[in-house]
């Protein structure tokens, strides 16, 4: 052997010894015969039990002439080692033959995990590479231990320790045991921001998903350190600044440091805000022949004078490309360009429309959808195989797939097609659970204690259908509902919803009667834009009133037996005489006034509904909803408008036109204070001659002006001997201004905010029944005792007395808003400033609940 060969062999042996935990020794006792004389067929294999001789020989690749030189033997040795099938490989020569002696790795009999309480065996088994009945590879075992540790770190347990043990068994078999010391969760002890001048750290903590640990963190999970989440937070911060005019913003770094004393991570985001820009002008440049770029101006959401908003810029580009495609320019590409004026802090936006490459979609390949049907995914695309490739439409499809909430992850990439003008769209998906079972509980001063059990499925049968069933049971409210939604009716982007419901509202301290409603409602939903939606609906329901016997019996009270009529003033001024005074101010000698109200009867409109039995309401309606809120659960900026109309009279027993309007505008002020302006109003118009029922009227209370009881505002029966029920009204308006502010002395993660507000509003113009006509000798249910009575002049049964004055109600108050782990809770204390003579006050109000 020459010197060069010895050096090469020594280096190879050293490399192998360094790379492999188990030492592999190369013994090259080649004797006097030349190495190049060896061939593959002359290799003799020893020590193998499971691996075939030819398999081992196949790793030695001969050179020209079929001979093996030293380099080829070294390469074969390395290849055998890399298979992971052998503990030891030796090469020697004897009798003119090359001898390869191997010691095979044992076979894994079983794999077990010990000490794992937080992560199940099944999950760990699916993540490691070592498998039962597979060959043991020590490098692979070490890799598996690192993988298990990484899984625990992803769940916030950075103190985890993994100790793999190999237990030898007969017949060259082993058991592989991973002993796990899980350790405690490693939380985030602090989140800090450096360089943020425009927005406080308190505000930015609302933007990110990483939260500091607190006493209630066990109910969430955002306080567990996750490097991927921290990296995603960088992008959330950047996008937030870009949305509010900071075109030069950079989130330079997200620094994380483990603090051994606090046993948690300290996370610091370093921000360079730059200047805030406004839009100076919006221009269009088209390089496409016969296409005027200004034709796309109506699709721009960027307005001159407004703050630069990168999010609106992206949506504008998307809508412009789609509009250009509709106009026949399928390959048009819209590129926005911003020219900054650093002194004036303005930016000039120019949309450049160019002809893009003529590329077509050859195929759309779906991968990873094990449950969701292919057509459910493909219908979210506005392009299909053979269409022109449009990046804006592909991005929109990716966003739609994410919004379905069927998948953990969605990623659309492209691959070259069969020719240069063809691309293949690859849609990689990871399914997630879409079923929900929840038990909800809550309490409010209005509805009392309430519990709900519901089960729902967002991707029913993998067809993208929504189905839900729920049962509610509470002190004053009970019922059930069944809902079903087909989001793509007849393959159009139109959602069909079907609802079956039964509700029972029991009498309580605010109303003397109960209501029972059974109904069915189909509806159609259209997304006109991302921020504008339309819903068409039809509702048919049966409704009836229930009353406690004591409020509807018209039973004589032993305290006030029938008395002969005494017209003297002395009698009229007695309690008994006053009880006999009818609505028209005359004395009622029939005694009906006494007999029906002496024991506290319900108001006439209530008893009329009771006597009428069940009433069918058949109505068609629509709703327009405009939503630009930055966060639907905790809004700080944006506008929410809801306009709805319902026309009853498509069959049924009642007819009316009901219109309602509700608008909320949120705007950030200073020092994390958010201003809220809330305006609402409604009107109920009678259609035809059927008249309006009391149940059709608007009923208002703290939902209009806080500080008043439910049904505490508006026209009311003022008969002092009855229940003085609220009658409702056909017109209302309300206006409110509220300031919401954080408690800066409390940690952000506590989720507490305070509020101060002023409300004003009114409800008036009752147009329900005011009398109950009778003629002849009749028994009227709920009006007279069960005997024949001849009312005076065959007139009316107790004409209604009510106060319907149009009075402005107003109140001021304070509130406590808690975004608790138990659900949103709100406490309000309001003091009425102005009120009607018979309004009912409720200064404290509480409401909230959660699912668990």
Helix percent band:
10-25%
The CATH first-level class of the largest domain comes to: Mainly Beta
Overall 3D shape: elongated
* Number of helical segments with 4 or more residues: 14
User: How many β-strand runs?
Assistant: 35
Write the CATH architecture name of the largest domain.
Beta Barrel
Structural class: alpha+beta
The radius of gyration is 39 Å
The percentage of residues in β strands lies in 35-45%
Low-confidence stretches: 1-37, 555-598, 774-798
Physical arrangement of strands within the biggest beta sheet: 18-19-20-21-22-23-24-25-26-27-28-30-31-33-34-35
Q: Span from first to last CA?
A: 77 Å
CATH topology of the largest domain: Porin
Offer a few descriptive terms.
single chain, 852 residues, alpha+beta, Ubiquitin-like (UB roll), 6 domains, 16-stranded antiparallel β-barrel, three-stranded mixed sheet, 14 helices, 35 strands, 17% helix, elongated, disordered N terminus
Layout of strands and helices, then pairs:
Blueprint: H1 3-19, E1 38-39, E2 43-46, H2 53-57, E3 67-68, H3 70-82, E4 86-94, E5 97-104, E6 107-114, H4 121-127, H5 138-154, E7 161-169, E8 173-181, E9 187-194, H6 201-207, H7 227-243, E10 250-259, E11 264-272, E12 278-286, H8 310-326, E13 332-341, E14 346-355, E15 360-367, H9 374-378, H10 391-403, E16 407-416, E17 422-431, E18 435-444, E19 448-460, E20 465-474, E21 477-486, E22 495-505, E23 514-529, E24 532-546, H11 569-572, H12 575-579, H13 592-597, H14 604-612, E25 615-627, E26 638-648, E27 656-668, E28 674-686, E29 716-717, E30 731-742, E31 752-764, E32 802-803, E33 809-820, E34 823-834, E35 844-851
Parallel strand pairs: 2-5, 6-8, 9-11, 12-14, 15-17
Antiparallel strand pairs: 1-3, 4-5, 7-8, 10-11, 13-14, 16-17, 18-19, 18-35, 19-20, 20-21, 21-22, 22-23, 23-24, 24-25, 25-26, 26-27, 27-28, 28-30, 29-32, 30-31, 31-33, 33-34, 34-35
């Amino acid at each position: 052997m020459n010197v060069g060969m010895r050096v090469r062999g020594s280096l190879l042996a050293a490399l192998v010894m360094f790379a492999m935990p188990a030492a592999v020794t190369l013994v090259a006792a080649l004797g006097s015969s030349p190495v190049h004389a060896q061939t593959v067929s002359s290799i003799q294999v020893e020590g193998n039990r499971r691996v075939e001789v030819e398999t081992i020989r196949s790793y030695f690749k001969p050179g020209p002439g079929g001979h093996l030189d030293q380099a080829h033997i070294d390469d074969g040795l390395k290849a055998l080692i890399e298979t992971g099938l052998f503990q030891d490989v030796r090469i020697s020569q004897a009798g003119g033959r090359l001898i390869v002696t191997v010691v095979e790795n044992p076979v894994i009999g079983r794999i077990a995990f010990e000490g794992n309480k937080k992560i199940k065996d099944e999950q760990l088994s699916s993540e490691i590479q070592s498998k039962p009945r597979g060959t043991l590879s020590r490098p692979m075992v070490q890799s598996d231990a690192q993988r298990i540790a990484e899984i625990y770190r992803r769940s916030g347990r950075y103190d985890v320790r993994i100790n793999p043990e190999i237990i030898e068994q007969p017949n060259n078999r082993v058991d592989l045991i991973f002993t796990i010391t899980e350790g405690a969760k490693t939380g985030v002890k602090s989140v800090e921001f450096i360089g943020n001048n425009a927005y406080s750290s308190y505000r930015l903590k609302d933007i990110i998903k990483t939260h500091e640990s607190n006493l209630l963190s066990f109910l969430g999970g955002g306080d567990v350190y996750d490097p991927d989440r921290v990296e995603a937070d960088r992008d959330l911060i950047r996008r937030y600044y870009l949305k509010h005019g900071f075109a030069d913003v950079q989130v330079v770094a997200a620094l994380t440091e483990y603090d051994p004393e606090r046993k948690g991570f300290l996370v610091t985001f370093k921000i360079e805000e730059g200047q805030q820009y406004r839009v100076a002008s919006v221009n269009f440049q088209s390089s496409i022949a016969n296409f005027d770029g200004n034709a796309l101006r109506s699709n721009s959401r960027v307005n001159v004078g407004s703050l630069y908003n990168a999010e609106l810029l992206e949506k504008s580009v998307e809508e412009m490309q789609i509009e250009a495609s509709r106009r026949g320019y399928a390959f048009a590409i819209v590129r926005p360009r911003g020219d900054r004026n650093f002194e004036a802090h303005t930016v000039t936006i120019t949309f450049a429309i160019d002809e893009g490459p003529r590329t077509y979609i050859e195929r759309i390949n779906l991968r990873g959808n094990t449950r969701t049907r292919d057509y459910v995914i493909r219908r979210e695309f506005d392009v299909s195989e053979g269409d022109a490739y449009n990046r804006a439409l592909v991005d929109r499809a990716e966003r739609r797939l994410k919004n379905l909430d069927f998948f953990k992850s969605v990623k659309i990439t492209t691959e070259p097609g069969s020719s240069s003008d063809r691309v293949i769209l690859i849609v990689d998906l990871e399914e997630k659970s879409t079923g929900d079972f929840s038990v909800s509980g809550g309490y409010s001063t209005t509805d009392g204690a309430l519990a709900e059990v519901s089960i729902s499925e967002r991707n029913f049968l993998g067809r993208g259908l929504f189905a839900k069933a729920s049962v509610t049971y509470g002190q004053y409210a009970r019922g059930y509902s069944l809902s079903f939604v087909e989001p793509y009716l007849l393959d159009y982007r139109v959602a069909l919803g079907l609802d079956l419901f039964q509700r029972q509202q029991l009498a309580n301290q605010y109303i003397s009667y109960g209501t029972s409603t059974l109904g069915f409602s189909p509806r159609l939903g259209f997304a006109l834009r991302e921020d504008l939606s339309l819903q068409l609906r039809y509702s048919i329901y049966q409704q009836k009133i229930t009353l406690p016997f004591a409020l509807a019996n018209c039973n004589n009270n032993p305290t006030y037996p029938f008395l002969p009529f005494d017209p003297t003033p002395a009698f009229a001024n007695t309690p008994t005489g006053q009880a006999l005074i009818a609505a028209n101010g005359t004395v009622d000698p029939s005694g009906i006034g006494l007999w029906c109200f002496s024991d506290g009867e319900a108001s006439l409109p209530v008893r009329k509904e009771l006597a009428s039995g069940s009433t069918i309401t058949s109505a068609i309606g629509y709703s327009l909803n405009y939503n630009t809120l930055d966060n639907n659960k905790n809004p700080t900026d944006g506008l929410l408008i809801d306009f709805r109309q319902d026309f009853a009279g498509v069959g049924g027993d009642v007819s009316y036109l009901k219109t309602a309007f509700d608008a909320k505008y949120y705007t950030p002020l200073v020092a994390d204070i958010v201003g809220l302006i809330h305006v609402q109003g409604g009107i109920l118009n009678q259609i035809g001659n059927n008249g309006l029922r009391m149940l059709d009227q608007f009923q208002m209370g703290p939902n209009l002006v806080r500080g008043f009881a439910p049904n505490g505002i508006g026209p009311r029966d003022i008969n002092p001997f009855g229940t003085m029920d609220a009658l409702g009204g056909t017109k209302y308006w309300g206006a409110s201004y509220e300031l919401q502010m954080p408690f800066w002395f409390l940690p952000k993660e506590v989720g507490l905010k305070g509020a101060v507000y002023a409300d004003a509003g009114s409800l008036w113009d009752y147009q329900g029944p005011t009398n109950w006509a009778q003629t002849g000798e009749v028994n009227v249910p709920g009006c007279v005792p069960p005997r024949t009575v001849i009312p005076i002049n065959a007139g009316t049964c107790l004409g209604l007395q009510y106060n319907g004055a149009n009075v402005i109600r107003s109140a001021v108050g304070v509130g406590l808003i808690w975004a608790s782990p138990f659900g949103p809770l709100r406490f309000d204390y309001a003091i009425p400033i102005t009120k009607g003579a018979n309004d009912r006050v409720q200064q404290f109000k509480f409401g909230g609940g959660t699912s668990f």
